Each structure stands twice: as structure tokens, then as C-alpha cells.
TrEMBL record:
Molecular function GO terms recorded: oxidoreductase activity
Coiled coil spans: none
Keyword match Oxidoreductase: yes
Alphabetized UniProt keyword annotations: Oxidoreductase
Keyword Nucleotide-binding among UniProt keywords: no
Ranges where the NADP-dependent oxidoreductase domain occurs: 15-311
Record-linked Gene3D superfamilies: NADP-dependent oxidoreductase domain (3.20.20.100)
Full protein name: General stress protein 69 (YhdN)
InterPro entries named among the record's database cross-references: AKR_Detox_Biosynth, Aldo/ket_reductase_CS, NAD(P)_OxRdtase_dom_sf, NADP_OxRdtase_dom
A Gene Ontology cellular-component term: cytosol
Natural source organism: hydrothermal vent metagenome
Pfam families in UniProt: Aldo_ket_red (PF00248)
């Protein structure tokens, strides 16, 4: 599988990475079978995917633990990415809080290393900005942790351009992890150009808009979990109906090209200028195989023009 250099680092990643939010299970997603999750991760590695992205808050440590078990004995095949800054007082949505203080980050890195069963994390990312902690303080501590050999590179997630500029004053930022898909393109205005100009890799999460771009759902579908609350992102009531109409048009176009919409959406994401990799979730080895098929698609200029007309 093709590999792409991540920012200014010496780290090379596959154009499709495995996102493991769902593998964490509750409270964000339904309960997952551990053996199936491990098989899913191994299937991704077998297919040539080398970037595995996780976070402590995914299942309150559960995702990291499962990833650690799955990559045991195969650590040298993996670009391992995790995060810091989202912590919990209790294992519930209400128990979550931001903490990027130096002492908290120091504690988090050791917890992640233990759960992942490794002595070094390739890409350590600030999960979300912390309103209480200046990003400069966090970056100083992350730089010290890097000097200790516990991490190879520092990245950020869900950062604005201004926040990235502040972080860059202290240490190199190798990558940004933003939400990006055919339905949610806000980063095209300022963020993507900034990353291109500053050679910051972009790991696009939610390239399938949390499932909408699989084409499996219509306006009458009853979602459970956080999607069912209809108060976040493209699932907000005012955003959902227009999004579903766009999805149907995209689905019709994909069918006219004999391409699964899922594969079309992934291919579109990884083909955008400045995007290094799309992080795609999977619940099974078969889903991994379906995701990887996006790499075999060949889209023409007229395809991209037609897609742009639909989503603009």
C-alpha cells in the first residue's frame, strides 16, 4: 500500500488509517466483542494499513487496551497514534473534562503506554484544546516527554489556526486531526490552506460523516447513542435533512459509476490537497476490506467536478 510522509516527520502512513473510537464501546457506541475488535485491527494491518489511531477517552481506556492486545508482537508494523487532554471523573459523558496541565499530560502518557503495552508512541496528539491551560504550557511538557523518548512526534486535534500558531511557537506540530468529509468541509476555508503552507499533515477523521456517507440511512432512520440525540455535527436537526438529500444525490452518482458510496467518500477525502490520511472506523474484518477498496477507485476530473457540484 502507498505510504505518505506525515508532515515534516520521518513517519510514513497509509492513506487510510484505522480509527478505533467505536472499538471503545460505551458510552459513545454499543458494546463491542473484544475478539472481533482484535481481529478487525489485525485485518487492517494485514491489508497494509499501518496507522492505528486511538485515545484514552474511547471507552475510558478500553480502546487503548484492545489496540495494545491486537498489536502485541506486531509493534514494528504500526504507526501508533493516541491522544491526551480529555479525562473523566466517572465513566459517563457527564464525567468528562478537559485537562492539558503539565501534570495531567505526564500522567496520561504513562497510562497510555501501559494500556498500549509499548514504551513509545509514534504520534501523541492533543485531543481538544483546554480553555483553562495555555497551549504553550502543554507543548513545553510534550516536548520534554518527547526528549525522554516516550513519543516520536507531537500532533493536535480539533485545533483552530490560531491555536496551531500558538503551539508552533513552542515546538513542531507534525499533524492536525480535524473532522472532514463531503458534508462537513469547514476546514477548507482556512485550516487546510494553513496546514499545506506549513507542511502539517492532516489526518481527516469522520470521512464517512459517522456513517451517513455509507448510504445506509434515510431521513426516517432512528439512531441510537449520541447520534440519536440529534444535537451534534451533521446529526443536528437543522443539518440532518439537507445532509440526507445530498447523500441521496451522491448515492445516485456513485451507483451510476458502479462505485459504492462508502468507497467514493473515502477516495474523495484522501484525494483532497493537503489531506495525508483518512481515519476510518470498522467493526469487522469485512468492513476493513470494504474501506480499503477505496484505494482501487480511479476518479476522473469530471467525477470530481460532478461531486463538487452536488456537495457545494
Amino acid at each position: 500500500m502507498e505510504k505518505r510522509e506525515l508532515g515534516t516527520s520521518e513517519i510514513s502512513v497509509s492513506p487510510i488509517g484505522l480509527g478505533t473510537w467505536g472499538i471503545g464501546g460505551p458510552p459513545f457506541w454499543s458494546e463491542r466483542n473484544e475478539n472481533e475488535s482484535i481481529a478487525t485491527i489485525k485485518a487492517a494491518l494485514d491489508s497494509g494499513v499501518n496507522l492505528i489511531d486511538t485515545a484514552p477517552v474511547y471507552g475510558f481506556g478500553r480502546s487503548e487496551e484492545v489496540v495494545g492486545k491486537a498489536i502485541d508482537g506486531r509493534r514494528d508494523e504500526v504507526v501508533l497514534a493516541t491522544k491526551c487532554g480529555l479525562r473523566w471523573k466517572s465513566q459517563s459523558l457527564k464525567g468528562l473534562y478537559h485537562d492539558l496541565s503539565p501534570s495531567s499530560v505526564t500522567e496520561e502518557i504513562d497510562n497510555s503506554l501501559r494500556r498500549l503495552k509499548t514504551d513509545m508512541i509514534d504520534l501523541y496528539q492533543i485531543h481538544w484544546p483546554d480553555p483553562k491551560t495555555p497551549v504553550e504550557r502543554t507543548m513545553e511538557r510534550l516536548s520534554a516527554i518527547k526528549e525522554q523518548g516516550k513519543i516520536r512526534a507531537i500532533g493536535v486535534s480539533n485545533f483552530s489556526v490560531g491555536q496551531m500558531k500558538s503551539a508552533l511557537e513552542i515546538a513542531p506540530v507534525i499533524s492536525l486531526q480535524p473532522k472532514y468529509n463531503m458534508l462537513e468541509r469547514e476546514i477548507e476555508k482556512e485550516t487546510l490552506p494553513f496546514c499545506r503552507d506549513n507542511n502539517i499533515g492532516v489526518l481527516a477523521y469522520s470521512p464517512l460523516a459517522s456513517g451517513l456517507l455509507t448510504g445506509k440511512y434515510d431521513e426516517n432512520h432512528k439512531f441510537d447513542g449520541w447520534r440519536g440525540k440529534r444535537n451534534f455535527g451533521v446529526f443536528r436537526k437543522e443539518a440532518f435533512d439537507p445532509a440526507i438529500k445530498i447523500v441521496q444525490k451522491l448515492k445516485d452518482y456513485a451507483e451510476s459509476r458502479a462505485i459504492p458510496l462508502l468507497a467514493l467518500a473515502i477516495k474523495w477525502a484522501i484525494s483532497q490537497p493537503g489531506v495525508t490520511c483518512a481515519l476510518v472506523g470498522a467493526n469487522s474484518a469485512d468492513q476493513v476490506k470494504q474501506n480499503i477498496k477505496a484505494l482501487d477507485i480511479r476518479l476522473t476530473r469530471s467525477d470530481y467536478q460532478a461531486i463538487d457540484k452536488i456537495i457545494s
